[in-house]
What we know:
This protein has 349 residues and is of the alpha+beta class.
Amino acid sequence: MSSQDIPEEKLPAEQGAHVAVADEKHPFADPGLPPHEHRIQDVDERAAKRSERTVALLFTVSMLATVGFIASYVAIPHDKSIFVFPIGHLNALNFALGLTLGAALFSIGAGAVHWARTLMSDVEVADERHPIAADPDVKAKVMADFKQGAKESALGRRKLIRNTMFGALALFPLSGVVLLRDLGPLPGTKLRHTLWSKGKLLVNMNTNEPLRPEDVAVGSLTFAKPEGLEEHDHDFQNEIAKAALMIIRLQPDDIKDKHELDWSYQGIVAYSKICTHVGCPISLYEQQTHHALCPCHQSTFDLSDGAKVIFGPAGHPLPQLRIGVNDEGYLEALGDFTEPVGPAFWERG
Length: 349
């Protein structure tokens, strides 16, 4: 049903519209506003009630979704996973929180938009404004003052001053370009490499002694650094921020990821200690679940399954360092990390 189907006497009164005519002072005529087309809700109260119920339904869905968000947060275990086609396996809690929060926000927005488009007034109103252009007398005075100023400056006759002024103005911005140097040198490939290399011993951060396999008990967490890196070195903080390791010993049967098992030694695995969210050092380990927790923003990694992210804002798993044992029985690295440690960056390949 459209407004054309409503008897004319039942239509709301039209607002008068004045259409200007072109003349010498105003060469472009004001076309005015087109005739206002009434919506079905403007002329049929039953249609307006339907729109009102639709808006109320959307707001109710938002309320239910908010309740669902709270219930999901309380009831769903943080380590439960589900399969969602075609995405794959997802953390059930994250999926439920995202779905309910998104539904709550979408329903509020959709309800507000439907309310505005069907029930709020949609009459176009012209707002009369004063002319922006200055009066001819003002224009003439401004141009006269400009010409007088240009003549008194002698810019046209004093070419030496004019040319050197242009040169000064052109070169001055270069001083700002030079200041960009203080932003520091380009990182190059420094973010992609650490001090770890083939044959580097794993040194206990607490005892400063090389580690043997028997020094790492099942279920324990040990922090390690590369051989040769000392705390009194001037670049110690920069290097340890990339090379810090977590050493964990698991039962080989508990390791779910084949790649992780191949890169371990008798269940001893070495992962980067640097969280892949914003680079905080990970220091909390739960022995029963093999989960490592970042204390900054609660990103949680499963160290028995390739250090995959199972909770929190971290974007990708912790990088693993391949390790082995040398001829003297000490744990050693078999190379560097195969990917940059820490948070992602825009040029990361």
